[in-house]
Amino acid sequence: MTTGTDWPLAHTFTSTSGAVRWDRLGPPEGPPVVLLHGTPFSSYVWRGVARALARDHRVHVWDMPGYGRSEKAAGQDVSLAAQGRVLTELLAHWGLEEPLVVAHDIGGAVALRAHLLHGARYRALALVDPVALAPWGSPFFRLVREHAAVFEQLPPPLHGALVRAYVSSASAPGLRPDVLERLVEPWLDLSGQAAFYRQIAQADQRHTDEIQRRYGDIAIPVLVCWGEEDTWIPVAKGRELAALVPGARFEPLAGAGHLVQEDAPAELVAALLGFVTQAP
């Protein structure tokens, strides 16, 4: 297992949903960028993209409460509603008024909720295979959500095998073994196993239902990137989402699955940089 020295997240912020580990890269004077991860991942999935963007931008990364190296606790609120509030708190803590926000998977729902419900202001928003449109959640995800208390009692070897298989399915070409182990590591000890099923149990579609009708009100530049081989959320959802947001640009990425950051990092960085240069 790794020690976290490869992705240290040196800072801690006490949020309303627990301690959040975060860090920033790049020149202090660079335009601010905030990266949001999805589930069951952490900011580690952004490491390559973050370092590429950090050549000219001030890049902020963080692990959501209940994920990665952030606090995991019994009874913790790790819902999409809670994460939207935490993002708003973090933006204020960082003193960022209009950053570029790049959000993956449930991070997309979190970014959209913060913007539409809590008044978080962005210069522009890039959504990467986001959770945004109903219905969402794979058959596996729904099964676990309905029986989270049962799955939480799995013997650790079975739980570990399940998590590895699930995370592996997010990549179209397949993950390197060392990357797979780094991605599943936060979920393998006792607190991590409980946290894994807790975040699925709290994944409620109503948190996207209540904002979906407002996507037409978004008035900032929006880029929707999607892995064409995504088996978790089909690429058709990306086209549907882009059609709902005024002026949104849709960028399909060939050969990439749901975990675009691992499958096509160079192509994703190119799309993001092109988007940034065109955003006012």
UniProtKB/TrEMBL annotation:
S-adenosyl-L-methionine in keyword set: no
Matching Gene3D superfamilies: alpha/beta hydrolase (3.40.50.1820)
Keyword Repeat: no
Pfam families (alphabetical): Abhydrolase_1
Sequence ranges assigned to domain AB hydrolase-1 in this UniProt record: 31-265
GO MF entries: hydrolase activity
Keywords, comma-separated and alphabetical: Hydrolase
Name the UniProt record assigns to this protein: Alpha/beta fold hydrolase
